[in-house]
Fold these 2 entries.
Entry 1:
Amino acid sequence: MAEARGLRRAAVAAAAVGATTTLASAAGSLAAAAYFARRVLTPERQRPDDTEILEVRDGRVLLSATDETVVPGRYGLWLDGGEGHARIGDITATDAAAGTVEREVHGTDHGELRPGGARFDGYYWAGTPEQALGLRTESVDFPGELGRMPAWLVPSPEGRGTRWAVCVHGRGALRQETLRALPALHTAGLTSLVPTYRNDEDVPAGPDGRYNLGLSEWRDLEAAVEYAVRSGAEEVVLVGWSMGGAIVLQFLDRSPMADVVSRVVLDGPVIDWGDVLDHHARLHRLPRGVGLLSRSMMGRGWGKRFVGVHESVDVARTDWVSRAGELRHPMLVVHSAEDEFVPVGPSRALAQHRPDLVTYEEWQLARHCKEWNTDPQRWERVVGDFVS
């Protein structure tokens, strides 16, 4: 959700910059491209409400109908600016004329579910793994390139053991994004580590305070894997959502610690950032030349000053369809045909190029990284079978 909102705003704002300048001029194109690139790479700290709670009654909640709230499945609602949280389930009624949808209420984790603004989320669960799922959780930290990085550690049923999973959330997301995976990993006998990485809330920022689309964040994942190995892990399964998938792929390519990884699970992953950026530029009618220029500015030394990055963000290095021959780890890719933020095409293409390594599971209906939400039984079975 945070990723989708961020790139939508970036594309709209860049199109506005382009519209209010003379796009025929180099200066106008440069300004629009730089603005788009900066918005893509800048963490968003503000998470505005996007859903209206209209009525709460008898275990049901009436919501404004949006692209998110009308999709079947189980989801969450952040209340009171993120201070409260409620879990909602199946659709019980819709009224197209009124623009409303009624859903079951599964529970309120904290705060009060009442009429007013809310923020829709795909995490479903909130809090720590112990609070949300009843799984014993240790709060740990590990030394990273930029300082101490906090993490959750959920031991396997037999203790820490030698088989670990390291779970990597997406761009602008919280660690709670990974909670949906922990029961399946726990049942499969894995100890789970849920780390943070640079530019997360309440952790050290990168030198430029911007996302590098996995091209620097992989070093924080490396530090997490090193911690797992020091703590007894002999085999590591990596699990990544969205940009977390891009981080995982860079780690596998660039870290000597990749040899300890046995399997990889990617959910709605960014297989090719160039494809994602092109998709959002097209959605908002950003001129093609501006979109291409923004990518060039991210990756070239001359553009770093305009974009505000410490190290170049070479989008070409994130194209794993073109680089498919370099992959060497067995991989489960879960992706939805209806993913509105990360188009499914590169995931399909990667599976076609590397059927020897990639097990591909495609969903319908689910929006970005919400496959579990629409069919949790299938997701847990597919993932559990793969990691076992």
Note: The chain has three domains: 1-46+273-317, 51-121, 129-270+319-387.
Entry 2:
Amino acid sequence: MPRPASRLVWLRYAIAVVVCLGMGALLSWPAFEMLWLSGSDEDFVSRQNRLDQIQWIQTVLIAGFLYTWFFFFGATVGSFLNVVIWRMPRGETVVTRPSRCPFCSTKLAWNDNVPVLGWLMLGGRCRTCRLPISPRYPLVEAAMGLIFLVLLQTEVLQGGSNLPGHAAIALSYARAMLELKFEMLSIYAFHCYFFSLMMCWALIAWDRSRMPLTLNVVAYGVGFFAPLIWPELYPVAWSDSTFDSFHDAARLSVFLTAICGIVAGTIGGAVLRLALPKPERTDASHRLGIPIMLVAVGLYFGWQAVLAVAAMSLAIAILLTPLQKARQRVDFAGSLEIALLVASVVFVLSWKFWIATVGLGQLIPNCVVLAVSVLLWFILRKLTWQAEVDLARFQRPLGEKSATSPDLQLLASSGTISENTH
């Protein structure tokens, strides 16, 4: 039986045309530049206008290439995260076994694995069995691609405009590609790695799956040892205290920053976990994603970030509560974890605002944020509160007869209860 053709054949042709145009522009650019300048007049103003036009076209092409490359790089990471989210809680390998259809186990072709576009070209269905593929796969890929793009713009192209203690220095696209700034690139890679982990934890909790220990070890290991090797990964220290008398004061400050972040994340995660009702028996995550994610926030960004992320995540979870109830997801599994992911993105993009304007790290602003967090915690607790019914009270022990209830067999034999004769 022939397989039905995809209804999105036009998308394949559109992608092929865009790729061919991009490669053609790249290869023919020297010839285009020579022809464009040769058509200018001899006067200086006309030639300068032509040069400005060429520079503008060149900037657009470089920007398009840069943004496209980083988006699909992040989307490719998101495609791998989809595999991690599905396989690691089940104890399966994420390296050697190729991607397959979850229904017919058919091995996916290389073009089916293209992030976002592969799902679109298939029309959201398996090429072989034509069963629907969840739209969550391209959404995760697109979300990671956008996170990589936003961090590229703020932390690399704008010279860390979101980072405390960094003066925003806008770089041109050509300069950003040619003059690699190791400090900004290392911070960018550090934060991209963090958000990849947060995406995994949030969606594993949403699926009510088991939190894999290996993922936690890898996350905390990199978050603890990488700043010890490159102290510039921590733009904010644990306090204003300096250790000038020590031989390696920078790494000692990094060590204390990591320890304070872990302690603050552990306490905050344990308290946040109490805001939601107790997990159901089918929830293998046991709400452990909340403290795991908040410990990672403290480890990667410092203890000051824990308060801000906790407050924002509680506000986001309150806004998501009506949507959760509309979906009849009464256990709220994964809701606070998704909120923690979103709040972490918002915090990193506004990090300088929280440190410089709000003044996180000082006593009075911390107390205000803590008071707001407590208020939001009580509101979320009230919205998600559910009455607990002990069903064991209504269950009669096996083989025991109640002294007050009548014998059903006696009632049936005396005609009180009509017998079923059908």
Note: Residues 44-87 form the longest helix (44 residues).
